[in-house]
Amino acid sequence: MTRCPADAARAPNAPVRPASTPASTPASTHGRPAARPFALLQKVLPAVLPAVLLLAMGNGCAARQAITGRVIDRNGDPIDRVIVSLDPGDVELITDSDGSFAIDYMRDEKGNRVRLERRRDYSVELFRLGYHVGETTVYYKRGELVVDPITLTEDTVRIEGPEVEVDPGQFRDRTQGTGATYEGE
Q1: Domain locations in the chain?
Q2: How many angstroms separate the CA atoms of 44 and 69, rounded?
Q3: pTM of the entire structure?
Q4: Phi, psi (rounded to 5 degrees) for 7
Q5: Is the peptide bond between 78 and the residue preceding it cis, with omega within 30 degrees of 0?
Q6: Do residues 84 and 71 touch, judged by C-beta distance below 8 A?
Q7: Is the dihedral of CA 73, 76, 81, 85 positive or negative?
Q8: Are strands 106-107 and 113-114 parallel, antiparallel or unpaired?
Q9: What is the distance between the alpha carbons of residues 117 and 106, in angstroms, rounded to a whole number?
Q10: Which residues pair with 78 in a beta bridge?
Q11: Which tens digits make up the pLDDT trace of 77-129?
Q12: Under CATH, which architecture does the 66-151 domain have?
C-alpha cells in the first residue's frame, strides 16, 4: 500500500486506502462514511462563482483609454486615409476604410508612448487632400471618449473667366497647320 501526503497526518494505526481503490469508490475512513466527491464543490461553487465571473468580466470589459471617432463627407459616407493629428500629444494616425480612428496614446518629450492625460482639452485636426482641414476640440476625462462624426467638406476651386476682353484678331490664323496632320478614324 502507498501513502499519500494527506495520510501522513493520520495516526500510524489508521487504516489506509489501497492505491488500487478509485477515489469514487465509497470507502470508510476512521469509521465515517466517505464524502461524496462533489459535495465540497456543490457547497463552495455558489459562493465563489459570482466573484470569479465578476473578475473575468472585469478584465475583459476594462475601460479602454482612447479618443475615438469617425470622419465622413457631407453625404454621410466615410472618408478613408484622413490624417488625424492630436495636439498636444504629437500623434498622427490615418483613418481606416470606415473613416474610423482611435487614438489611445500620446507622445512625451522624448517621443515615447504614454497614456492620454485625463481631464484635459485636446485638439483633433483632420487633413485629406481635396478637403478643407477640419478641427475639433474635445475634453477628455477618462475611459473611451467617442467623438461625434466629423464632417469634412470638399475643397472647391473657383475658376473665373478672364477680366480682359480678348481680340481674336491679335492672334494668328489657326487654320494653317504647322505641317503635321492627324488622320483619325
Answers
A1: 66-151
A2: 45
A3: 0.53
A4: -70, -20
A5: no
A6: yes
A7: positive
A8: antiparallel
A9: 8
A10: 72
A11: 999 999 999 999 889 999 999 999 999 999 999 999 999 999 999 999 999 99
A12: Sandwich (2.60)
